[in-house]
Design a protein that fits this description.
By secondary structure, the protein is an all-alpha fold. It has helices spanning 2-24, 29-51, 63-77, 82-110, 115-136, 147-167, 172-194. It is globular and about 50 Å long.
Length: 212
């Protein structure tokens, strides 16, 4: 139940990020809905399709649709203040990142997948929607420019999987493990964001020499 509530919060925050991007790109209402839905549920739908869990959760729980629509209404009602509100969205975005990593990893684990598939499902759930959103908007996917974002998902998913197999967690224990991993990802994500820490500053891709 706790993860479901946090999942809804993450969907709402991600949907807001999609609508705000649509504002900046001067998309119409349909474009805003497309970007909001892409980032909010794109990763989860991709995960479920890969795992063969069909129909995906989005098509079984109408609350996801209501939340996305609610996020659009919220943004359109307060669009004049979006520049001030959006800076706080990163906090909910970090929470959504942590929650989606745990949800994706857990789903792979419950279906008996191997370790790297479980971790990959966590990363896809958390970052897949954002990549779809950015591609639709004509931008380079955020996770390819801000590696700490994807790296936080990868590290958090690895921690959660190790916790699952070593603690044999269930009941209160698994809730504590979930909250710990979510908190770790949130702190890592916000810390690197507010202190402007980026792995690309430490590991830059070599630039090819000019042919001139």
């Amino acid at each position: 139940m706790l993860l479901l509530i946090l999942d809804y919060i993450g969907v709402f925050a991600f949907a807001i990020s999609g609508v705000v991007l649509a504002f900046y790109k001067k998309f119409d209402l349909y474009g805003a809905f497309t970007l909001a839905a892409a980032v909010a549920i794109g990763g989860g739908v991709t995960r479920d399709v890969i795992l063969g869990s069909t129909p995906p959760a989005f098509f079984q729980d109408v609350n996801y649709l209501y939340i996305i629509i609610g996020a659009i209404i919220f943004c359109y009602a307060l669009y004049r203040f979006m520049d001030h509100i959006y800076k706080y969205v990163v906090i909910f975005d970090a929470l959504g990142l942590g929650v989606f990593v745990v949800i994706g990893t857990q789903k792979g684990f419950d279906m008996g997948m191997n370790w790297y598939t479980c971790i990959l499902m966590g990363v896809i759930t958390a970052t897949g929607g954002g990549m779809i959103r950015d591609v639709l908007a004509g931008d380079t996917p955020f996770v390819l420019r801000k590696e700490v974002y994807a790296s936080a998902a990868l590290l958090g998913g690895s921690m959660y999987y190790v916790g699952l197999i070593t603690l044999d967690a269930h009941g209160i224990a698994i809730t504590a493990l979930q909250l710990f991993v979510i908190a770790f990802i949130v702190i890592l994500r916000l810390g690197t964001y507010f202190f402007n820490i980026n792995l690309s500053d430490m590991f830059r891709t070599p630039t090819l020499p000019s042919k001139d």
